[in-house]
Amino acid sequence: MWMRIPSDMTSRLPRFRSHNPAIGDRVVVRRRIEGADVHWTDVIGHVTALDPLVVRPQSVGGMPSTAREIIIPDDQLEVVRILSPRTIRNSDIRAVEVATAKAFPGLSNEWVDGWLLRAGDGITERSNSASPLGPTTGFDPVPLDAIEEFYAAHSLPVRLHIPERIGKPALKVISAEPEAWHLGPEILVMTRELSTLDPFTLPEGLEFRVDEQPDDDWLNMYHFRGHALPPHALELLRTRIDGQMGFGRLVTSLGQTVAITRATITAAESRTFLGYSAVEVAPAYRRRGLGTALGARIQHWGAEMGAAEAYLQVISRNEAGIGLYTKLGFTEHHRHRYAKRTR
């Protein structure tokens, strides 16, 4: 979806990255060239200034370059679209989402026309939503009747998982009946390769370990988006997956658990991924770099277990979390969100 500048953001059509462009954003800008044989031309690159808009054309793969900047006067500016920070193929989005789905199965799982339908505890979206993971789901109609029947059978509301680009048919469903859906916040899916990890030493007095199953100390520390989970939901965290789980923690010399994370090793498209989630630091130990320390150490563990890439998810408004994960070497891969049918 193209967006005019300035934009009042009143369009009812759902879209990703609907904020106004900021310095550093990768964008595609359509500008009008008066008197030219071709009346419009597109510039793809990174914003370096806003008034007027200045864009530096991108390098290969959507990366920043040292190319000469292009100034786009207001009277030439037609529309601008904010892009993902780097060039990502649909197959790459699908691979990360398939690996994630394997790490967060439902209690009941069913495939319908390339959509994975998962039903679990009804709390977390990941294990209670329909995901478009098949190779043609980005083009085929959404099998909405079958999805509604599946969730009705499990006494759960219909939730659609909508990764950008490959979830385009689902966005069309929502835009056709916007009053019937609640569209959740954008979630950044961030990734990094594990072949370039820096050497890392834990803070003094702390030990890192990974257990096959969490104990009560681990479970009591975990919260989902700031809220404690009921016992049956916590139990799902330790349920067998199509891959390997590890419950990481940092422990003091006295045996106190002070930071935790859930790690998974799953495969998709002949690629092996480390999934990194459920990060929590004990209140008395926050602002000491333990989140960074645990994140760095669990990446080394993932590499030791054979993972070549890592992914994680963070809500787009969580600037502190995005900053932490950027420091750990992660960059935005793509975005997704969830839509819940309300009637």
Q: Can you put this structure into words, describing what you see?
A:
20% of the residues lie in helices and 34% in strands. It is an alpha+beta fold and 343 residues long. It has 3 domains: 1-87, SH3 type barrels (Roll); 90-186, no CATH class; 192-335, 3-Layer(aba) Sandwich (Aminopeptidase), CATH 3.40.630. The strands form 3 sheets. Strands 9, 10, 11, 12, 13, 14, 15, 16 and 17 form a 9-stranded mixed sheet that branches. The protein has a 5-stranded antiparallel sheet with strand order 4-3-2-1-5, with no helix packed on it. Strands 6-7-8 form a 3-stranded antiparallel sheet, covered by helices on one side. α6 (290-304) links the parallel β15 and β16. Residues 206-343 form the N-acetyltransferase domain. This is N-acetyltransferase domain-containing protein. It holds the Pfam family SH3_Rv0428c. GO terms for molecular function: acyltransferase activity, transferring groups other than amino-acyl groups.
